[in-house]
Amino acid sequence: MKSKWNDAEAAQLNGDLLKLRVYTSRLLGQEEDLVLHGGGNTSVKIREKNIFGESEDILYVKGSGWDLATIEAPGFAPVKLDPLLQLARLESLSDPDMVKYQRMAMTDPSAPNPSVEAILHAIIPFVFVDHTHTDAVVTISNTPGGEARLRELYGPEVLILPFVMPGFILARQIYDLTKELDWSTIKGIVLMHHGVFTFHDDARIAYENMIDLVHQAEEYLAAQGAHDLTGQAAQPANALTVARLRREVSNVWGTPVLATLDASPTAVAFSNLPDLRSVSGRGPLTPDHIIRTKRTPAVLGDSPLDDIQAYARAYVDYFTRHNPGDLTQLDPAPRWALWPGHGKLMFGTSPQNIRIIRDISRHTERAIYQAEHLGGWTTLPQAELFEMEYWVLEQAKLKKAGSSKPLQGKIALVTGAASGIGKAAVQRLVKEGAVVAALDINPDFKSVFPQKEVLCISCDVTDTAGLQDAIRQTVLHFGGLDLLVSNAGIFPKSHTLAEMDGALWNQSLEINLTAHQRLLQYCIPYLELGFSPAVVIVGSKNVPAPGPGAGAYSVAKAGLTQMARVAALELGAKGIRINTIHPNSVYDTGIWTEEVLQARAKHYGLSVAEYKANNILKAEVTSHDVAELIFTLLGSAFSKITGAQIPIDGGNERVI
Hints:
alpha/beta; L-fuculose-1-phosphate Aldolase; Rossmann fold; seven-stranded mixed β-sheet
């Protein structure tokens, strides 16, 4: 690991201590091997004048909820230093009281809660304090004789301390141990199984002390032959198996969740380790990860669904053995599962959860593999890991998450997604918490949906193999399928039946009818495994009220509507709802250019605005209005309704 300090960038900060704190915090946070997803914290001590003109020392310490990789100045909570030092001298203090008193000492009540390690930062008598959960150092500490290895590696320059719970207990331990310490003789503190603190009055030196200690640990691992895994090729994964696993985990979890397959070469290599169950079952890289990943992953064998149930039973036993009697058990579902030959599956309620678990598990796999070359992977005893998992401050993080959105954990597929009704439907479903596979024939539409919640797949819905592959991609990326919006279609040029072009007729039937039937057919096995599965078929006003010259379109849409009615009859016993909407005069789509609108309005002797609202309600119908109806049909409000046909047209005399 090398220093990324840049003299020119630092010079632009003009010696501003808080700006320097932001700068080096980001340097640390952008190194995954140092900091993962909210881990680690930093601080700076600044002497300032208060509103009364009195000078006082303020500790600016990373606030709860901020990520070091992207932190800004408002992410540091300003806390008066003297009260923190007074707290350190108390014989005992509960963690909830510690949080309360730290907050009482803040100079800005709108700032985030200070880090739980704020008191420890206050004790260390230097301007800049950096703390990371560096992989290399923690990996060495998670081996037999890890403490002795670290003492030999660093010598007297680094204080090596056993693991204790973060918060007041840790702060008090270091306060007692360092009362007689000459701080000028050390450049860092290693907390076993946890991480590293470095410090100095100069921002650069504090930062580069961290880089130096980590670099030494990395060189030590390399010298001991603790290399990284060599990647291996994955076996093809069965999408239906993934969907069944996602359903099983969701049932254990108590809510629909996503399941993403990581078939990267290193994930596959780790899943193929001969002693996989043993090494993966010993504990996490650092106890700080347990709130994200639980203590261990599940390991899948020949009966993967049974393995999920066995994991849940083992978790219940783990809780029962360690529960002091007043705790409420968390859900017993795994957050990741190792699948020999295939890699691993990550489970979470959102793509962000999945990304966190992927990153943490990737670092954990590497650390386990390296530690095995140093004598074996060892972690804290289960009792101490349990204490961390059910620590009141960790549980408070879970409660902060708040209530989930209506479609949280749900997986949708929308065709014709690049524009118009399809695009609006994707946006609406994502807003309500769903993830969406967006299919469109346009090969360049991925920029339309930059969100991680959307998987863009270029697909011609009339291409059977391409359609099947798109559905498989969806399942392997998100875990299954709950919701389907069958929307893709074309509006052929006007031809009377007497003048009908055979190719145009067949094209309309293929795209506006047959492709929908194939899509539904291929999705049914996954919808059967879904949660409150529902389908919305996008029909047309031309079904109840056809017009001359639109035979190819009207007949195909009428057939599509009839197909939806049959599907409602056939799939109702499986809990799959099928409803149809009939939009009309939705003008904010690609086919309705301003020129076309002006020409049509002029034809009827109306302004463009009048033409758009030329219905009984005198209201313009937009793609977003249709998307709102689609969301409603897919949601709980229509949970007891199937086979319905609903016009969305502002009121049409012929339909009524």
